Amino acid sequence: MNKFEISLPRKLTNQLLHQALLTPDQEICGLIGADASGQPSSCYPISNHADNPHNQFLLDAQQQIAAMQTMRAKQEQLFAIYHSHPTTAAIPSHADLKQTAYPEALQIIISLSTKGILELRAFRCSDNTAHELNINLIEV
User: Fold this and answer.
1) How do residues 63-119 score in pLDDT, each as one tens digit?
2) Burial (Cβ within 10 Å: 0-12, 13-18, ≥19) of residue 23
3) Quick check: pTM over 0.85?
């Protein structure tokens, strides 16, 4: 694997897609933790507390802190921040780029705007730019 691709367990990917489908009219969001080898292993859904959750996300601060504490206790590191775009493509919006608080973590975006097909893409974001990474689905 190179710096332009990541591997995601199929089970984790299915969790993300399922969450997005449960609330198709609002952006869902959360964190993904990686194990000691750097492989994504855990999904931490977090409530969206944005003023307009239909087209933006804001992680609930208390739930984010709790998720980070759980990750530390499990000796995980922050791998990615994920959210959905109910009506737009799975590419970082201007607001997504502007609010990147953890540039070392990937941004994973799920789009529901494709007719009958869910789209999931990964980006490394910093300095108001996004670089897409290829996603390889793996069985674990």
Assistant:
1) 999 999 999 999 999 999 999 999 999 999 998 998 888 888 999 999 988 776 778
2) middle
3) yes
Q: HSE (CB half, 13 Å, CA atoms) of 25?
A: 0
- Strands (E) located in 10-128: 29-34, 40-46, 77-85, 106-111, 119-126
The Cα 119–Cα 28 span in angstroms is 14
Partners of 111 in the β-ladder: 85, 119
Catalogue the long-range contacts made by 127-135 (C-beta closer than 8 Å, 24 or more residues apart).
128/97, 128/98, 129/97, 130/91, 130/92, 130/97, 131/4, 133/4, 133/5, 133/6, 133/106, 134/4, 134/5, 134/6, 135/5, 135/6, 135/7, 135/8, 135/13
User: CA-to-CA distance for 17 and 91, rounded, in angstroms?
Assistant: 16
